[in-house]
Amino acid sequence: MKLIIFPPIPSILVSLFIFLALRHFLELPERAPRLNWLLKYLWVLAVPLLVVLETVGSRWDTDVHWLLDAVYVGLMVLLAGVVLIRMRALRPARTLLVALAPFALQALAKLALYTLPITAGDTLSSLIDYGKPADVYWFFSIAWLVVGTLVAYKQQRILQQEQLERELEARIKFRNQELEQLVEERTASLNRQTEELRTTLQQLKATQSQLIQSEKMASLGELTAGIAHEIQNPLNFVTNFADVSAELLGELREEHQKGVVADTELEAELLTDLEQNLTKITHHGQRAASIVRGMLEHSRASSGERAPTNLNQLADEYLRLAYHGLRAKNKSFNATLTTFFDPDLKSVDVVPQDLGRVLLNLFTNAFYAVQKRKELGEPGYTPTVEVSTLHRASGAVEIRVRDNGTGIPAAVRQKIFQPFFTTKPAGEGTGLGLSLSYDIITKGHNGTLSLQTEEGQGTEFIIELPG
Amino acid sequence: MNILVVDDELDVRALFEQRFRREIRGGQLRFAFAHSGEEALDYLHQHASEVVLILSDINMPGMSGLELLGRIRQEYPAPPPPAPPQVMMLTAYADEDSRRQALELGASDFLTKPVDFVALKQKLLQLAANDDAPS
Fold this sequence. Notes:
The complex is a heterodimer of chains A (467) and B (135).
Chain A: H1 8-25, H2 28-31, H3 33-40, H4 42-55, H5 62-86, H6 91-115, H7 118-128, H8 131-257, H9 264-299, E1 307-309, H10 311-329, E2 336-340, E3 348-350, H11 352-375, E4 384-391, E5 397-403, H12 410-413, H13 433-445, E6 448-454, E7 458-465
Parallel strand pairs in A: 2-4
Antiparallel strand pairs in A: 1-3, 4-5, 5-7, 6-7
Helix pairs in contact in A: 1-4, 5-6, 6-7, 6-8, 8-9, 8-10, 9-11, 10-11, 11-13
Chain B: E1 2-6, H1 11-19, H2 21-26, E2 30-34, H3 37-46, E3 51-57, H4 65-75, E4 86-91, H5 96-104, E5 109-112, H6 117-132
Parallel strand pairs in B: 1-2, 1-3, 3-4, 4-5
């Protein structure tokens, strides 16, 4: 028996260590948890074996030791083989299997030698157990095992490296996907926000045009009474002059029927009066028509088209409308209206509805201011609103609306052209009048709207339109 | 009887002159016209004792008809002599408030526009008759 017998303790410890190494090498905890669990508790078998060998075993005879040794090595080799076959999918496991093969063959042969019947055993033992060939084989199988193990180790390293790279790649890929998804989500949310903003903007625009329209209607409402009054007056004249003309005609006929004794002087006078009355009827009819036209134009959505407009007439019309509008609401209110219209002012290309709204706003504000000052009860105060036009040598046109009302405090002056800013009590002003006026003059007509004001003394708004 | 008509509408003159042409020709009524409260006061100052009746619009630029009425009552407070002119108010805004205010201020009548000239003529002729009677 030339096989080296390991003393039991190191032998068992070595085998335990080998299996520990094998478990980690093949990454059994992850790849085959159950097998790993079995191998982990291998010591449970080893410990009693060790105890038996150390106590009872010392009295046994050498042959028994030999047998036990062979059985033990054989079993271990078998176990290792089973584990490796089980893990054959792994390249290092296959390599190890190959590396173990010669050693396993010898171990199994030795096991067979001890367990098989004597005759067969003898033949076998003569082949493997004696002499130099066995030693050489043993040396070779160990060397093979070591080299194989090293190769397997290297393969394992490469495998791990590959695995690491794959994992890294996978992680990068995953991260990329995550990023892509994030970008997609962000893009979607940005798109959504943009869409929301667009909708909001559209809603705002719609609201704005509604507000502008309602502001227009509100100012028209304020004017209703003024307009009614302004129409009533010319209509009264039309009826009265028509009526009186009928009387005159009756008188004329009477006179005519007298024949020769007719008073020709009276006839001539009656005819002149009739002629004059017809002119007056036409005049007042046109006056009423022009007011109705103005009202319609004011309520109609602005065409935005410029048309040659007589600014003197426009200013006069709106001054009267604003005045009577306020009078209708406040019966005791009275103001002196002064007009200085430049006779040289030719018609100017403006959007009449828009400019009318500006004038109306300025007049309404002026009347409001003088009314407020009047309420203070200063003795000798005469509310006065003045409008003047001027055709400058440069070609520019200037319209000034001046009042001797309460004036505008400095703190308010900064804000008066801001939308929704109003000093009037709730419900009396939309706060859009001056802001719209400002837009109409500056953006719509490339002009300027400025003001001069002194608190307690009055305000003057100056519209300048390029010629 | 002298009547002062106060109205800012210029054509009121032509209208009154034609409406009352027979009475004017007959000398029963004589009309003078003023286009504002201020003008009316000036006229009154110049022709104080002549004017028996004032017909005034309420809504006029500057001095309103009610203000004019107040001034007249202030300047001519006492009953005769000379008799203070009667003031009739004419307005398109025939609201209760103005009417009450006018009557409080001493208006003798409150007429609404459009003027019913038939009724006005009757009133004026009646007044003219009364005016002429004592003298």
